[in-house]
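Project standup — Tuesday

K.O.: blocked on the structure for the chain from last sprint. Re-posting the sequence here as requested.
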Amino acid sequence: MAATAETEPGKLIILNGGSSAGKTSLALAFQDLADECWMHLGIDLFWMAQPPEQLDLARVRPEYYTWDSVVDDDGLEWFTVHPGPLLDRAMYARYHAIRTYLDNGMNVIADDVIWKREWLIDALQIFQGYAVWMVGVHVSDEEGARREQERGNRYPGWNRGSARAAHADAEYDFELDTTATPVPALARQLYQRYQSCREPTAFNRLHKRFLS
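H.V.: unblocked you, prediction finished:
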């Protein structure tokens, strides 16, 4: 049942940033802090729905994605994912799934890594007319690399390359730095910033920039 006069559409917060920026932890803490119900529908939920073999960098097929790793002259490694047509379709479907929640009056907080401009444009088209808060989530390069190493399941430079891709075209209503602030404090900041920003504008600015 879609949203009606009795059921207002849900609101959407998109936490966009690189891998290991702390987006998922922030989203989960926000859920427990907020007075309203917020459903967490992050990119990992849909990424991990791919066939297990396609999550293995040594075996993944190009229709899902390809990847490369480049070491700069300064010795920093940059890992980049290049989505293929199947992953593009999965991410397009992801945004439609989120919109279904919104249409049924459910608020959604979604942590995202916008790997390519086309994903951003899909989101701009699919969520046009909804209340969307765009939030940039950042971490220092050193701390991001430390977290990646601690996790043990990330290729070196994944945090660096994904952050560059995620923020390349984005604009935000506000931004958070997770480098040194504990998650509970960050969640309070997010909630306070959300409450004080009753009319978000970044999404409409992006829509005008790319689709007008």
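K.O.: great, moving the ticket to review. Residues 12-211 form a domain with the Rossmann fold fold (CATH 3.40.50.300). The first helix runs from residue 23 to 33.
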